[in-house]
Structures
1.
Amino acid sequence: MENAKKTGISVFFPVYNDATTIRQVTEKALRIVSELANEYEVVIVDDCGPDRSGELAEELAAENGHVKVVHHPKNLGYGAAIRTGLATVQHDWICFTDGDDEYDLEDLRKLWRLRHHYDLIITFRYAKLYSGMRIFISAVYNFVLRRLFRTRYRDISTGLRLVRKEVVEDLDLEATSPFIGAEIAIKAMLKGYPVGEVGIQTFPREFGKGASTSIPNIIKTIKDMLKARKTIFSPNYDLPATRDRT
């Protein structure tokens, strides 16, 4: 624990229609990171949802100086909210999750223990307590990603991960859709950063419906996925400094 206390950590999560869970996610994040490090912050990214999430985020920031809020002037999408969070946080290690409490931040302790071995730690759901359709969509999505990008990851877009800030700063991220999680893992792998996986349980949201498997988000994800594949498999992607194809 003595080494952990010397390392700063930022936790952030986007909110959109998450007024019911924003307080419990924030308070849980504050409790856990305060036990892991002396320097910490919790950043809430308000993606301009139709509920009171942004207003509640400001209330939480007023209550605790470790909480910061960033507001999008309009809804920009999950991937854009993740990129905003990554650009806002300050500390060496970054944990990001979802605002609906589907992923329990207690599992951050598992990821934190592995930070000396990996630069990016992603999670996979070994028990999926969802509808059959959502499980099917997830299985197809992960299968397609493994084939398209030649990766080994079991559940590449699960919404809980820990990454070094230096890694994020080295990646050229473009996705505005839920593909952002896969984009981070794929591009980090191709840059040579060690990527680890940890199995977790999940707790499906108790209210409303998640937007990641909506038709508009699926279409945006496919577009971002194909765009990333075209970029990554181009002859000029991430060439060694001593090489030039022109």
2.
Amino acid sequence: MAGKTSKKSGKVAKKAAAKRGAAKAAKPRKTAPKSQSSKPAKPVLLSGGNPQIAKGYGDAPVQAYIAAMPGWKRDMGRRLDALIARTVPGVHKAVKWNSPFYGFEGQGWFLSFHCFTKYIKVAFFRGTSLRPLPPGESKQEEVRYLDIHEDDQLDEAQFAAWVKQANQLPGERM
């Protein structure tokens, strides 16, 4: 009967192997798994170079979005965010649909921006009420856009005036 094992000794061997495997798995690793490397993860960019940032409320997700904006758009995103925050102290921020939104809690949103391949599109949700009108038309009745390209000079005074006006209008509920 050499080479044959009893059912009992076969079960014992399997249990012993399982224990060895569990003990091996429980030992601490000497190196971090590859997914936990010390390098920060490269942000995921969607089509057109728009950062993919999880939905969130407050300044932190907006700053994460801006930090993930590619190239020249990052600096412009910082400028836009700073202008909005300076013009409307206490503005409520969020990232929704992979875009930063600005407004007041319980009152809706008045502005958002989004990265495209060659420009940043700023959306004023009640833009048809702003004077002068922001230049970009929309299929949505009240929305107006401002497209900012890499070599464009942002008229900060005009942008701040639009932000101030937009803030005083009823917000868009989204």
